[in-house]
Design brief:
The complex is a heterodimer.
Chain A (H helix, E strand, L loop, with lengths): L3 E4 L2 E4 L5 E7 L5 E7 L5 E9 L2 E4 L7 E2 L9 E3 L8 E8 L4 E3 L3 E5 L1
Chain B lengths: L2 E4 L4 E4 L4 E3 L1 E4 L4 E8 L5 E7 L5 E4 L2 E4 L9 E3 L8 E9 L7 E3 L3 E6 L1
Parallel strand pairs in B: 2-12
Antiparallel strand pairs in B: 1-4, 3-9, 5-6, 5-10, 7-8, 8-9, 10-11, 10-12
Classes of the chains: A mainly beta, B mainly beta.
């Protein structure tokens, strides 16, 4: 059973609000990732981290930012939410090649 | 760069039908290959994996064989069930280096009718 948790599961928020999506794992994995999933179900890597104080932008440009101050925690922040940010966000972690995923946060910006 | 190509979907089958989902890949090194499954409203779960050529991954009646000569990792199941309805992703990760990343295919939705 994978021990990676995302909160909240669902979030509906107004335009212009600041939001933080939480992701935590208890497996001690160094590598963590954020994916954005579009309605067609395709996954797009938006951020990743190889360890504490390491963050990199992924293949899809995103207005969100991430931080990695602790190994177990990899939050994603949107300073000013817009309707175009409406999507499913998936967090994952890995030690070597196999990744474990959280259940996702479905964000709706109205 | 690395890439994964999955067959176009969606796929709709009747219960107990045979399933094949095609996956081919391009990689510069010697990748590990994966199939992930996403049930409605959930995150992705690892279904099976293979780490070297000719390895066969299997789980829950699903199988896939790592074919280096055809750069393929097709997913098969002999008799699908309604509970197999989900989105299936093929993925690869370079086996070497601490900084490896997963590369996913676009995913394919499988619907199984009773």
């Amino acid at each position: 059973e994978a021990d990676i948790y995302q909160t909240p599961r669902y979030l509906v928020i107004g335009t212009g609000k600041k939001i933080t999506l939480e992701c935590s794992q208890t497996m001690g994995h160094d590598k963590m990732y954020w994916y954005q999933q579009d309605p067609g179900m395709e996954l797009h890597l938006i951020h990743y981290s190889y360890g504490v104080n390491s963050t990199e932008k992924g293949d899809l440009s995103s207005e969100s930012t991430v931080s990695r101050i602790r190994t177990e925690h990899f939050p994603l922040t949107l300073e000013s939410a817009r309707p175009s940010h409406t999507s499913q966000y998936l967090c994952a972690s890995s030690r070597w090649t196999e990744a474990f995923f959280g259940q996702g946060t479905r964000l709706t910006v109205v | 760069g690395n890439s994964v190509t999955q067959m176009e979907g969606p796929v709709t089958l009747s219960e107990e039908a045979f399933l094949t989902i095609n996956c081919t890949y391009t990689a510069t090194g010697y990748p590990s290959l994966f199939w992930y499954v996403q049930y409605p409203g959930e995150g992705l779960q690892l279904l099976l994996k293979a780490t070297k050529a000719d390895d066969k991954g299997s789980n829950k009646g699903f199988e896939a064989t790592y074919r280096k000569e055809t750069t393929s990792f097709h997913l098969e199941k002999g008799s699908v069930q309604v509970s197999d309805s989900a989105v299936y992703f093929c993925a690869l990760s370079e086996s070497t280096g601490a900084n490896s990343k997963l590369t996913f295919g676009k995913g394919i939705t499988l619907s199984v009718r009773p």
